[in-house]
TrEMBL record:
Keyword Transmembrane helix: yes
Region annotation Disordered: where it falls in the sequence: 1-26
Coiled coil: none
Predominant cellular place of this UniProt entry's protein: membrane
Pfam families: Aa_trans (PF01490)
GO molecular function: L-amino acid transmembrane transporter activity
Domain Amino acid transporter transmembrane span(s) in chain numbering: 36-414
Cell location: Membrane
GO annotations of cellular component type: vacuolar membrane
Entry keyword Transport: yes
Organism: Phoenix dactylifera
Lineage: Eukaryota, Viridiplantae, Streptophyta, Embryophyta, Tracheophyta
Keyword tags: Amino-acid transport, Membrane, Transmembrane, Transmembrane helix, Transport
Record's bilayer topology term: Multi-pass membrane protein
Annotated protein name in UniProt: Amino acid transporter AVT3B-like
Gene name linked to the record: LOC103723599
Length: 425
């Protein structure tokens, strides 16, 4: 895309970081070039926008186009506020200490709450990264099953989707055995180009389909659908782990908040346009992965295969933070091939059991992503600033914690019901 990717922060729903996201990092080298506002804008875009956007049209079908757009806007605003809470918390700790060793969300958790804070971040990182990788395998296998039909089988471990996951497993075991993933770093740029290209193709197809068919639409659905939509929206904006590294690399830190806000505004508009147009084009026939609604033209097939290749090679990059945490917990920070293989196998088996891509996005978004995006930033901010906030500030932070916990519990229950209902069908 013409911009370097930031690779010293935590991996998220759409980042492809190659660096340990939870171990303490030294301050950037004095000679390291800092990012201009334009580059910071691009890096925020790269860190947030990912394959999860392909589930937004289906989500808008479930929530209604107006409700879906409103949910996106609200979640974007809340996420932006919590991103700023993290930046303010880190800056305050830096001011107190006179120097910074806080380069990631894990570092911040350790600085604010000690080992328990680090453990909370570790747990959320493991769950979220594994969730993203399960989503990747679901997307790849469902797309391949759509493009290349195989005989159906009632067993979840022998269904066409599962057969493609089994076929990928030996290659993933090999890729995830690599100690250093530096050679896979160029795939980050490829991922961004393919994502943007896919969105462009889908938007063009959406407009053509809408002009040809003009299906019936609804603006607002019931409360349970709104919980579902909120989970997907939180997933779509899950890039909060990249905020601290991006702010540390910004050349003009006084303008970082404005640049971040502009990026979030642009991404929200893009997400809203993508979700609304996808639903407008196919109405109630919108599928959980919007690319499977498209025709069988050469360009469409190439885009779908490109996305599959992209996510296939991104999988080991996204699992890297999980390996780091697991090896630190169980192997004294030493490389452990069998532990990596066990984790990859567990993620693969989980992907076979989940029937719907967008349903799983909602589950991950409603559970761990809500905690990462809302609960931890507000809790860390409240602990560091304490009584300085006044009653209004304390109430605001507590409100985010309560809101996050309520969304996590209710959204997780709602998403699990949807997944179990789909399995029964």
């Amino acid at each position: 895309m013409g911009f370097e990717r930031t690779d010293n922060g935590e991996a998220s729903s759409s980042s492809h970081s190659l660096v340990d996201p939870t171990s303490p990092l030294l301050p950037p080298h004095p000679s390291a070039p800092l990012s201009s506002q334009l580059k910071t804008f691009a890096n925020v875009f790269i860190a947030i926008v990912g394959a999860g956007v392909l589930g937004l049209p289906y989500t808008f079908m479930r929530t209604g186009w107006a409700a879906g757009a409103a949910l996106l806007a609200v979640v974007a605003a809340l996420t932006f506020h919590c991103m700023l809470l993290l930046v303010r918390t880190r800056r305050r700790l830096d001011l107190d200490r006179g120097f910074s060793k806080i380069a990631s969300l894990g570092d911040l958790g350790l600085a604010v709450a000690g080992p328990s804070g680090r453990a909370a971040v570790d747990a959320m990182i493991v769950l979220s990264q594994c969730g993203f990788c399960v989503g990747y395998l679901i997307f790849i296998s469902n797309t391949l099953a759509h493009l290349f039909r195989l005989p159906s089988n009632p067993s979840p471990f022998l269904a066409p989707k599962a057969l493609y996951i089994w076929a990928m497993l030996p290659f993933q075991l090999g890729l995830n055995s690599v100690k250093t993933l530096t050679l896979l770093a160029p795939l980050s740029i490829f991922a961004d180009v393919v994502d943007l290209g896919a969105m462009g193709v889908v938007l063009g197809e959406d407009v053509a389909a809408f002009l040809a068919f003009r299906p019936a639409l609804r603006a607002v659905a019931g409360p349970s659908a709104l919980l579902y939509g909120a989970g997907v929206a939180v997933y779509a904006f899950e890039g909060i782990g990249m905020v601290l590294p991006l702010e540390a690399e910004a050349a003009d830190k006084s303008k970082f908040g404005k640049t971040l806000g502009l990026s979030m505004f642009f991404i929200t508009l893009l997400y809203g346009l993508f979700g609304v147009l996808g639903y407008l084009a196919f109405g109630d026939n919108t599928r959980d992965i919007i690319t499977t609604n498209l025709g069988t033209g050469v360009v469409t097939v190439l885009v779908q295969l490109g996305l599959c290749i992209n996510l296939f090679f991104t999988f080991p990059v996204m699992m890297n933070p999980v390996f780091e945490v697991a090896e630190r917990w169980f192997c004294g920070k030493r490389y452990c091939a069998w532990l990596r293989w066990l984790l990859v196998a567990a993620v693969s088996l989980a992907a076979m059991l989940v029937p719907n891509f967008a349903d799983f996005l909602s589950l991950v978004g409603s559970s761990v992503c809500v905690v990462l995006a809302f609960v931890l930033p507000a809790a860390f901010h409240l602990k560091v600033f304490g009584s300085e906030l006044g009653w209004g500030g304390v109430a605001a932070d507590m409100g985010f914690v309560v809101l996050g916990v309520a969304l996590a519990v209710s959204g997780t229950v709602s998403s699990l019901r949807e997944i179990l209902y789909s399995v029964e069908l």
